[in-house]
């Protein structure tokens, strides 16, 4: 039985399999490959693209998706082993996951980082509790550590625009925000781009390093795929000659010891990192701009970048559908 809750479940060869199938089916849609299949989707957090794209995949593939919003029509779920359940979480994942597995063919779970603590995010408690107790294939719709579907959609967008990703210079740049955000999306872009053989430049202010386990994993993928990963605190340096610029906000390397006001002040101190056309002019002439959405305009990214002809954020969002169709087919093909 297959699961896809992290890029490690695919590795470089699996990433290529998903991308190749997604691109082929985008060009020529398959028949009802999910005929009579059911996907149960468990949401701990809000969603626009994820929910809609997965439901569309199931319906267009001849199947159906059942949506469950935790704490809103569905019991609040406990994930901690050995928990004394005397608070507001009425059901444990240890029962919920196998019960849901009796009703559906696949499960999807979306659960953001609870406190953006790097060590806890590496444990990834909610998605891994479902992984332990589900008896059907499981796909992550974003977890504390990773958002693999987004990372694969990003890589598909690169493949579409440039034909190949081997040795493609791409930049992942930190962007400012009104609050610290989880690292799942930047983690996944780094991991997937490295697995696809890109030359990845990661730019961020001091103190905003991505987790060491993620960096080590990305560097191993790059070595296997012929790519590379470099890090810098100079955004201009990372953008120079880049063919794709991916902007994303994320919080400091750890929030331990940071009071909320301190973190907000730290984020505000780097407002100059917001991508503008002037910043994009340092990239290659044919460079494209990427962002996972939602985006706070003129805080995280300037209007002039999002509305420019080089922006591919809408195409990138559409590609969630195409990679997820490939993923669900892959999960059921074991």
Word description of this protein:
With 334 residues, this protein is an alpha/beta fold. The chain folds into two domains: 7-146 and 320-332, 3-Layer(aba) Sandwich (Rossmann fold), CATH 3.40.50; 148-316, Aspartate/ornithine carbamoyltransferase (Rossmann fold). It has helices at residues 11-27, 49-60, 93-103, 118-123, 125-133, 148-162, 184-195, 212-225, 235-239, 260-268, 277-280, 303-306, 313-332; strands at residues 38-43, 64-69, 77-78, 91-92, 106-110, 138-140, 169-174, 199-203, 228-232, 244-248, 288-290. Strands 9-8-7-10-11 form a five-stranded parallel beta sheet. The chain has a four-stranded parallel beta sheet with strand order 2-1-5-6, sandwiched between helices. The protein has a two-stranded parallel ribbon with strand order 3-4. Helix 2 links the parallel strand 1 and strand 2. Helix 1 (11-27) crosses helix 13 (313-332) and helix 6 (148-162) packs across helix 7 (184-195). The protein is globular and about 55 Å long. The termini are close together.
- Strands of the biggest beta sheet: in what spatial order? 9-8-7-10-11
The rounded Rg comes to 19 Å
Instruction: Specify the overall morphology.
Output: globular
Terminal CA distance reads 6 Å
Structural class computed from helices and strand pairing: alpha/beta
Task: Tell me the total number of β-strands.
Answer: 11
């Amino acid at each position: 039985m297959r699961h896809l809750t992290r890029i490690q479940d695919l590795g470089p060869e699996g990433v290529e399999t998903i991308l190749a199938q997604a691109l082929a089916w985008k060009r020529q849609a398959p028949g009802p490959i999910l005929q009579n299949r059911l996907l149960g989707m468990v949401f701990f957090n809000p969603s626009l693209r994820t929910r809609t794209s997965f439901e569309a995949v199931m319906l267009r593939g001849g199947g159906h998706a059942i949506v469950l919003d935790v704490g809103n029509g569905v019991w609040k779920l406990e994930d901690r082993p050995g928990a004394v359940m005397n608070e507001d979480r009425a059901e444990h994942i240890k029962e919920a996951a196998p019960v849901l597995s009796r009703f559906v063919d696949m499960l999807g779970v979306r659960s953001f980082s609870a406190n953006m603590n790097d060590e806890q995010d590496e444990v990834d408690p909610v998605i891994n509790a479902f992984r332990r107790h589900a008896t059907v294939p499981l796909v992550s719709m974003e977890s504390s550590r990773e958002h693999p579907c987004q990372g694969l959609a990003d890589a598909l967008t690169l493949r579409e625009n440039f034909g190949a990703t081997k040795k493609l210079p791409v930049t992942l740049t930190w962007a400012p925000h009104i609050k610290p955000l989880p690292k799942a999306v930047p983690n996944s872009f780094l991991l997937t781009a490295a697995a696809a053989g890109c030359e990845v430049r990661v730019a961020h202010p001091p103190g905003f390093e991505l987790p060491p386990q993620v960096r080590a994993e990305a560097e191993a993928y790059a070595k296997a795929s012929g790519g590379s990963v470099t890090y810098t605190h100079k955004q201009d340096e990372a953008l120079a000659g880049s063919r794709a610029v991916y902007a994303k906000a994320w919080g400091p390397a750890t929030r331990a010891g940071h009071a909320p006001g301190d973190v907000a002040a730290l984020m505000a101190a780097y407002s100059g990192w917001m991508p503008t056309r002037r910043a994009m002019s340092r990239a290659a002439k044919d460079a494209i701009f990427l962002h996972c959405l939602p985006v706070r305009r003129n805080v995280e990214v300037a209007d002039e970048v999002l509305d420019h002809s080089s922006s591919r954020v809408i195409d990138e969002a559409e590609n969630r559908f195409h990679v997820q169709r490939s993923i669900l087919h892959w999960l059921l093909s074991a």
